Each structure stands twice: as structure tokens, then as C-alpha cells.
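wait is this the right file?? whatever heres the structure
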């Protein structure tokens, strides 16, 4: 991803949308194929992104909706992290109590 050339993709989309979408599809398929252990999840994620873009009605609304989805996932991750931290503290307290009891 470090070699992503935004200007190339922008110009391709402006000059030849059919070629842009063909190249985009091929690039996405190659990326997904390079992560075989996550291929199903990545394919489903890309399908969700594509359907959001189609149903949004325009690029700005699609961006808003996709950012909202990302925010939802980050909030869920935050809740899970807090839960894990609570469980870790509880385990540490148990280990500490057992160490003192010895």
C-alpha cells in the first residue's frame, strides 16, 4: 500500500472510468488473494463497502456512511478492549492474592 499513486488512480477514473473500475477490481482481488487466511472476511467487507457506495447516492454521502460504519466498529473495539482490561485486572488480582497466600 506504500506505493499507492493517488494521482494515477484519479486520472484513470477521470479519463477512463471503465478501465478504472476494471483495474480497481483486479487490485482488490489481488490484495484479498494475498491474505488467504482473511479472504472471506475481506471479501465480505469489500462487498459491504461497495453496496454502501452504490446505495448512498453520491461520493460524499458514501464517505459519511462508511466513516459512520468505521466509527461503529471502533466503538465496539473500544468496548471490547475495556472488557479485556477489566478481565486482566481481575486475573492479576487473583494471581496476586494467591502469591500472598503462599
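ok assuming it is, sequence goes like this
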Amino acid at each position: 500500500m506504500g506505493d499507492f499513486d493517488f494521482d494515477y488512480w484519479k486520472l484513470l477514473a477521470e479519463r477512463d472510468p471503465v478501465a478504472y473500475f476494471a483495474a480497481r477490481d483486479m487490485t482488490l482481488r489481488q490484495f484479498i488473494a494475498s491474505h488467504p487466511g482473511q479472504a472471506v472476511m475481506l471479501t465480505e467487507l469489500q462487498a459491504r463497502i461497495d453496496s454502501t457506495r452504490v446505495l448512498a447516492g453520491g461520493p460524499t454521502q458514501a464517505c459519511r456512511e462508511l466513516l459512520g460504519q468505521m466509527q461503529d466498529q471502533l466503538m465496539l473495539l473500544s468496548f471490547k478492549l475495556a472488557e479485556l482490561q477489566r478481565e486482566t485486572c481481575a486475573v492479576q488480582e487473583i494471581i496476586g492474592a494467591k502469591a500472598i497466600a503462599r
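Residues 59-101 form the longest helix (43 residues). so i think its the right one actually
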